[in-house]
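PROTEIN DESIGN WORKSHEET
SECTION A - STRUCTURE
LENGTH: 463
TOKENS:
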């Protein structure tokens, strides 16, 4: 007992002096600018930071979009796969944590043997073993540290997958609504051109218009009808894409046409430094740096010997009824120290590899931050310019509609040829389509800006 007590005290002293070798992690520095460049001259008209108060898509106030977005977590296959990857990473953490504790085993057996000089003999045995790899140099601690960081990286990857699917869904949804609006524009255009054709035919009937006017009106109407039919293709494709995003078969999914919203909510961009906390891809890259840093410690720990405490208690004998008696007992306990004396530079190469992997992860992290800042700046300038263009396009639509009415009246009065009517109607349709495109682009840019800002996600969600 005195020997066992001495061994225990020695082990406790060693553990008390134990340290985790390798560098302690510090987040790589990145000094962000004080403000976004493209935010200058663009002031939020509806300041409401909804990104910190619930699902980000509710800023658009669209019930259909709300219902669709809620299905992403439930049915999107990419999100479900990313969630499974998180579970796998958490299981690895549990595996690493198990390394702190001893391994206990038990065995029971019976053997029967004989020699030429002795009759058959049955021998029973039962025992237990304990093996404990003591984490003196922090190999297990660094491994656990790396696995925890990797699990957090997987959780950030899940958030990124979810945000990507949500933003893709919102983008497709607003494109689909733009197609609905385009369909209404073309329907109205066809109706107007049918009336123009009747006017032209009537004038031709009374001999005040040429046959060419009738043919031109027919050609223009047919062209618009062709566009009217063609618009259904893109809407169908977008509807199929939305179905796939929410985990449904396209054949079982449909969206009824509804009017498109005409306003674009403002998304406050906040400060550039907040991207480090709000973008899941930045958090994912940063956690990979932490995992790579811990792996340096794992590699360095291989330079030092490993200390293992092992013990066993076994009973071997015959018959079974007298197995568990003192004469049949064999026990042992003691530490073992194992180290490598020569490995031809293997450990040095492994440490060098771990350090290089760490440096690469730092560079990747900083590039991810730069890309995030670029995406925010891109969407800010897009929204700022499109907002100005929308005002101009709105005036252009009003002017072209008025010009169309005036030109048609002049044609009825016989003061202008029908070609002027065609030009006016074509200009009106073109202006309306351009205005619709600008509105659609603004809504999509708002979605892209929210995605670039992290969609309301925060690193505090990493467990």
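SECTION B - SEQUENCE
RESIDUE ASSIGNMENT:
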């Amino acid at each position: 007992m005195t020997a066992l007590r001495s061994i225990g005290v020695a082990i406790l002293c060693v553990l008390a002096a134990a340290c985790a070798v390798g560098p302690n992690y510090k987040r790589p520095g990145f000094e962000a600018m004080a403000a976004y460049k493209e935010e200058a001259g663009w002031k939020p008209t509806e300041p409401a930071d909804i990104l910190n108060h619930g699902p980000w898509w509710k800023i658009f106030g669209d019930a259909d979009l709300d219902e669709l977005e809620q299905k992403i977590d439930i049915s999107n296959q990419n999100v479900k796969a990313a969630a499974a990857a998180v579970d796998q990473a958490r299981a690895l953490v549990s595996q690493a944590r198990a390394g702190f504790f001893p391994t206990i085993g038990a065995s029971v057996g019976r053997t029967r043997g004989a020699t030429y000089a002795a009759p058959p003999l049955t021998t029973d045995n039962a025992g237990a073993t304990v093996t404990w790899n003591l984490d003196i140099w922090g190999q297990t601690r660094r491994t656990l540290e790396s696995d925890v960081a990797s699990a957090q990286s997987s959780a950030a990857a899940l958030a990124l997958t979810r945000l990507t699917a949500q933003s893709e869904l919102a983008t497709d949804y607003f494109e689909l609504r733009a197609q609905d609006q385009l369909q209404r524009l073309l329907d109205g255009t066809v109706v107007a051109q049918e009336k123009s054709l009747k006017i032209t035919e009537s004038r031709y009937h009374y001999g005040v218009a040429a046959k060419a006017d009738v043919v031109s009106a027919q050609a223009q109407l047919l062209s618009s009808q062709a566009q009217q039919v063609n618009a259904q293709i893109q809407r169908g494709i977008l509807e199929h894409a939305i179905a796939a995003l929410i985990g449904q078969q396209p054949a079982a999914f449909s969206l009824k046409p509804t009017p498109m919203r005409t306003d674009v909510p403002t998304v406050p961009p906040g400060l550039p430094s907040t991207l480090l906390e709000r973008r899941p891809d930045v958090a994912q890259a940063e956690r990979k740096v932490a995992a790579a840093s811990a792996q340096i410690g794992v590699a360095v720990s291989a330079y030092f010997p490993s200390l293992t405490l092992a013990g066993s208690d076994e009973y071997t004998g015959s018959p079974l009824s007298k197995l568990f008696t003192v004469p049949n007992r064999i026990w042992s306990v003691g530490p073992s120290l194992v180290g490598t004396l020569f490995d031809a530079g293997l450990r040095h190469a492994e440490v060098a590899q771990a350090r290089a992997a760490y440096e690469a992860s730092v560079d990747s992290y900083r590039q991810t931050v730069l890309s995030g800042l670029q995406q925010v700046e891109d969407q800010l300038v897009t929204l700022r310019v499109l907002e100005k263009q929308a005002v101009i396009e709105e005036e252009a639509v009003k002017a072209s509609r008025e010009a169309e009415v005036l030109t048609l009246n002049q044609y009825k009065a016989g003061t202008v040829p029908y070609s002027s009517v065609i030009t006016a109607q074509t200009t009106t349709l073109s202006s309306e389509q351009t205005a619709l495109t600008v509105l659609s682009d603004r809504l999509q840019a708002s979605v892209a800006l929210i995605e670039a800002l992290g969609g309301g996600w925060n690193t505090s969600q990493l467990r």
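SECTION C - NOTES
DSSP finds ten helices and four strands in the chain.
The first strand starts at residue 103 and ends at 115.
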